[in-house]
Amino acid sequence: MADGLRRITQRQAVLCALGVAFFASYVYGQQFGVEPARLELVKLADDLYVIYNEFIPGNTTALITSAGVILVDDKYAVDHANVMAQLSRITRQPVRYVINTHYHSDHSGGNQALQALGAQAVSSERARERMVANKQAGATDVTFTDRMHVRLGDKQIDLYYFGRAHTDGDIVAHFPQHRVLAAGDLFAYAGETLPPELIDYAGGGSAREWPATMDKAMALAFDRVVPGHGVVTGKPEMRRYRDNAQRLVTRVGEMVGQKRTRGEIEKMLRSDFGWPDLHVQSGLDGVIKEAQ
Ligand SMILES: [Zn+2]
Predict the structure, then answer these.
(1) 115 CA to centre of ligand 1 in angstroms
(2) What is the CATH number of domain 3-291?
(3) Which helix (H) or strand (E) holds 64?
(4) What residue spans define the domains of the chain?
């Protein structure tokens, strides 16, 4: 294992569905979560914005209400000051809630600083258990198992847990008034390039259950989707990603049925699905085991 990867793994700093730029950055030795990312605002509506950066850390979605702000995901701790600076460009309201789509610190690293400002952090119960087990700062205050509705001002966000995928605690956040979904790391999108998915088996993830979990999320009424990483896009792109995940499961199942070796399956995942080292390390044994 490369030193850089070991460092990242030990800090559990990066375990997400990542694109080519991430891979290139990893190869060139950048350490994620140490330097703040360069952020920009993407406007979805007068009261709904994405605080975007390239690939790592995850996207932050901000809903502005007359009674405060609701954030979905808050990047790394080191990004907190810049997240607040971007928010100050669009509202003077305080952050009342931060929702974490899962436990990874590139989506929940800002919790501690936001809690100190009075925000309540919200996640699935499973995600909170993993935050506590990993001794992450800023474990969530409010948790749920299946669904939760958060109301603030005259607005509402609906949160759903639909099953295992990237981890066993992924939730999606639906903005029904805007027909927007914040998908967390159920989905990553980088233009025409579909980044490979990372299956965090150590975090309870499942390739086999991933497509069905995505199907349930896609049954919600939305036109635009904020992926965990990458640019805002639509349901057709999310469906393609889902179909790709299903193809992966089917292909591995066929190879396991043919008694192909671990090495052959690894080679196929690298060549046909673009898996980099981090994905192989995190997902190879798990995806084979699930196919048996
Ligand atoms: Zn993740």
Answers:
(1) 21
(2) 3.60.15.10
(3) strand 60-65
(4) 3-291
